[in-house]
Amino acid sequence: MKIIICGNYGATNIGDELILKGILKYLGARTGAPTSANINSRHEITVLSANPGLTQRLHKINSMAVLPAGPRSFVKGMLGFSFLRTLSAIKKCDLFILGGGGLFDDTYPRASLIWGIQALAAHMYKKPLIILANSFGPLKTFAAKLITRLVCDYSRLITVRDEGSKKLLQQMGIKKKITVAADPAFGLTQADLCNKKPVKKTEKPYVVFALRKSNKNFVQLANLLDWIHKKYGFQIKLISFQKIIQDNTGFQKKFSNKKFIHVLPYADDFCAIYKTIENAEAVVGMRLHSLILAILAEKPFLALTSFDKIKNLLASEGLANLALDINDKNLSKNFKTAFENLIKNQSSYIAAISLAKAKFQQKSEENKKALTKALKSL
Asked: Are 132 and 196 part of one and the same domain?
């Protein structure tokens, strides 16, 4: 079967690449370190990507450019013939998978348009469309709501990553069955993420911070780094989950003279990122997939966020107390209290995270079950 997977891939976002890795595993692809370009013997898979070369390197899978959503990208696609190649691939495919991730979201003004165009191509060629492991919202503009509804109405199957997304779609009048599952990254094991032999390293205890670029909270966050080091003696490792955004640029300039802060350069090495989190004393994450990796590694963590998708994720399995609102005027006080509890009661937190991990993994399998059932019906 010829399958196309379309999402925010090739955009130097580690979270999206972990999602793709999980979806490929659903489809029976090897996820460790495949040596062949065709990693799936049952299906012929093509991934639509912002950077096909990068996607091919990371996942050893055939990749083509996403359809353009603006005049400049359209001209570029026509001149390089990528536009026509992608349309040809969609015309020949048996199934079009849209997702996963937070694709339909007003936070990024053109997001709904970009993904609506991809779905429109599937509709144009009358290809079955599956919306897999998506989060929806916030959706406030008329255009975003209209595009989202049209795409959902055309789809044969919808699975979402949280209850909030399901409720939003139902409020918008979507009548189709919506399955609440979990992020495909929860379906990954340690072997999927890192098949390298462990290397023993002697280093000082450290805490991982996975930040988003945020000038508003820069000073406050910087003060919290100082507080952690002074109180516990921990080193700080700053890791970035997206190259384009450059999450850690401000900290790198401000604290280049502080030896306890280590700004790790962006890398798309899944194993290195996982090991960095696995070996940490704790994780503080503003990035969703830094928290998912912490859960997979059963590592104590705190979430700093204003995003509902993160709050809903943690609340769904009893971890709501680990989420702190980044915009809270009492953030500094609340963070210190929460972090002290995290370090003091590590064993109880790890037990709760381990229990949540098992439930998230079980939910993630719902994506695979729904996808398998859909494939059999084609």
From this structure: no
Tokens (6 digits) for 184: 């495909």
Q: Please indicate, yes or no, if residue 378 is contained in any of the structural domains.
A: no
Q: What is the CA radius of gyration of the chain?
A: 21
Greatest alpha-carbon span in the chain: 61
Q: How far does Cα 98 stand from its chain's mean position?
A: 14
Residue 264: name the closest of 201, 208, 322 by CA: 208
What's the N-to-C CA distance of the chain in angstroms? 10
What token pair was written down for 268? 């798309």
pLDDT in tens, 97-154: 998 899 998 877 788 999 999 999 999 999 999 999 999 988 989 999 999 999 999 9
Q: What is the tens place of the pLDDT at every residue in 24-54?
A: 999 987 544 333 334 444 789 999 999 999 9
Residue showing tokens 């059963």: 298
User: Is 72 in the same domain as 122?
Assistant: yes
Distance CA 58, CA 42 (A): 20
**Residues 77 and 112 placed together within one structural domain of the fold:** yes
Q: Which residues of 343-371 are buried (b: 16+ CB within 10 A; e: fewer)?
A: beeeeebeebbeebbeebbebbeebbebb
Residue 307 belongs to domain spanning = 192-359
Quote the tokens at residue 29.
């692809």
Helices 82-92 and 111-124 sit at what angle, rounded to 10 degrees?
Answer: 50
* Partners of 263 in beta bridges: 238
Model confidence pTM above 0.85: yes
Q: For 335, list phi and psi in degrees, rounded to 5.
A: -65, -45
pLDDT in tens, 152-205: 999 999 999 989 899 999 999 999 999 999 999 999 999 999 876 655 566 799
